[in-house]
Amino acid sequence: MENTNFDIQEELKKLPARPGVYIMHDEKDHIIYVGKAISLKNRVRQYFQSSRNKGVKIEQMVTHIRRFEYIVTDSELEALVLECNLIKEHHPKYNTMLMDDKTYPFIKVTTNEPFPRVMLSRKMKKDKARYFGPYTSAQAVRDTIDLIHKLYHVRSCNRSLPRDIGKERPCLNYHIKQCDAPCQGYISQEEYRKSIDEVIRFLNGNYDGILKELEEKMNAASEALEFERAIEYRELLNSVKKVAQKQKITDSSGEDRDVLAVASGEEDAVVQVFFIRGGRLIGRDHFYLRISKGDTPSEILDSFIKQYYAGTPYIPGELMLQEEVEDRELLETWLTSKKGQKVSLRIPKKGTKEKLVELAAENARLVLSKDKERLKREEGRTIGAVKEIAALLDLDEVARMEAYDISNTNGFESVGSMIVYERGKPKRNDYRKFKIRGIKGADDYGSMREVLTRRFTHGLREREENAELGKFTVFPDLILMDGGKGQVNVALQVLDELHLDIPVCGMVKDDHHRTRGLYYQNVEIPIDRSSEAFRLITRIQDEAHRFAIEYHRQLRSKGQVHSILDDIEGIGPARRKALMRHYLSLDAVREASVEELAKIPSMNEKAAESVYKFLH
Fold first, then answer.
1. Is the pTM for the entire model greater than 0.90?
2. Which domain CATH number covers 453?
3. Domain range spanning residue 464?
4. Which whole-number Å values give the CA distances from 92 to 24, 95, 274, 478, in the listed order?
5. Residue 251 lies in a domain
C-alpha cells in the first residue's frame, strides 16, 4: 500500500502527550513495530530525531516506516497490556525482544465453591469462577490478596468444605484474625457469602471505602507514634492504588466482542471499533462518515452497524455501544440471523466495560480532531476510488473485490493467488494461495480455470454447510482478472458453470506492462491515469502479482521446484542431464524438433516425442 499522503513530520505535530501504544507500518502497510509510551508525543518523535543514538535495529526499522498510528490509554499500565496483546496478535518484525509468552496474573475468586477462596492465577479457565485482571504487578496482586484476607477474613486453605468441617484444628490464620474458620463451622455459609460479595465489590472497583479506611488507620497509627504499623498501612494503601489502575485493555470474560463509539462534528463523524477476541483487545479500526447536520450519535451508530455488519464475514457475540440505538431489538434479531447464534447489543453504564467504551470514544474524538484531513484523503484513496470504479462499470455497489494472478517458472510449479480488497483496503486475512494440481506446463488459462473453480466450489459448499467462518464463504461484488479478454472469458465460463452471477473485469496492460484500462462486458474502458480509481487498480494488480510471486518463491526456497523435465514421462535423471548438457536451457529444448531430440545420447524417438508433446 502506498502512503504518499501520510506526512510523517506533519503527523508528529498532532501526537497527544498521553499514554498509549504506537504502531509503525512499512510501505506494504505491514505492522513492523508496536511500542508503548507514557507520552506518545515525546516517544514517537524520538524515532525521527537524527541526533539520538538509536541502535542498529531501530536505525534500520526507521528507514522502513511509512506511517504510524496510535491508541491512547488512561495509564502506562494499560498501554503495556495492550502492547503485549498487539504484539502477540501481529508478530511485528522488529519486536524481537518482546516476542515471548509472558503471562499476567489474575485474581481468582472460586465462586463455584460453597466457601470460596481468593487466589492468584496465571490462567483464566472456564470453570465458573470469577476472574479479575489481568494485572502487570504480581506483587501488587499478592499484597491485595493479603489485604483481602486481613479485611474480609476469607479462607486461603485447600480444605474441601463443607465436607471437612470440624475434621482438623483451625490453622494459624484463624489465630492471627485473618480467617473466620469456616473449617470449624464458626461462620455460616450465608455470612461467609456476604464477605465474598464484599470482596467482589472491592475487586470490581469500589475502592473508595477501603482507601478511606486504610488512610484513616495509617494516620491514626502515625499520630499514636506506631510508625511500623503506619508503614504497614501505607504499603497496603499503595498496593490497592496500583490495583485500582483499572485494566480496561483485557476483558476477564474471555469472549469475543466489538466495542463501538462515535465522535461527530457538523458534517463529519468517526466511528472507532475495538476488536476484542478471546478477551484481548487485538486491534482497532476507525471509519469516516459523512453525516447530516443534527444527526445524533445514536443515529450514526445505528446506520454504521447496518452498513458495516452487512459486509463483514465475522460477527462477535456482543457489541458494546456508546449510545442506545433506536432499532436495538431489530438489529439484534438481524445480527443473530446472520451469525446463526445469539448476538447482543449492550450499553454498559459502569465498571470496566463502560470505561472501555469511553476509551474508544476518546480515540474517536482524537481521530476526528487531529486526523480529519488525512481521513478525507484516505477516504478518497479507498472508498472514493471504489466508487469511481463502480461508476465506470455502472455497478450499484462494490464493497468487496477479489483479484487473481498466476505465477510459474517455465511452466513448472504453477501457483495462483487470490487477494481481497474491502472498501478499498487490502484484507490480508482473506488472501488465499493455490498450488495448481491438474494443469501441466505453462497454461495460464487452464491454471486460472482451476483456481476459480476451486475457490467458488469450496465457497458454495461452505454456504450449504452454513460455515459462517469458512475461508471462502463470502463472495465478491467484483472479480478482477490480471489480463484482458482471455482471462475474463475463463472466469465467466467458470461462474456460468457454477450458476453464479458476479461481475468480472479485466485489468488490461499496455506493451510496457502498465495498466491502461478495464475490460468489461466485451468493451475496453479507458481510465484517467490521474484518478484515484486508476491508482487503486494499479495497487491491486501489483499486489496480486506480488502475492503470487511470494508464494512461488516460498516453494522454491523449500527445494520443491525442480526441473520441468523431471515431470515428463520416460525422462529420468540420465536423459535430463543429457538434454541440459546439449541445449543448456529449457527454451532451447522447446525449440528443438523430435528428430533433433532423438539424436541426443541416451534418447530415443519415443522419449523425444514425449518431450516435444509435453513442452508444446
1. no
2. 3.30.420.340
3. 388-557
4. 9, 6, 19, 32
5. no
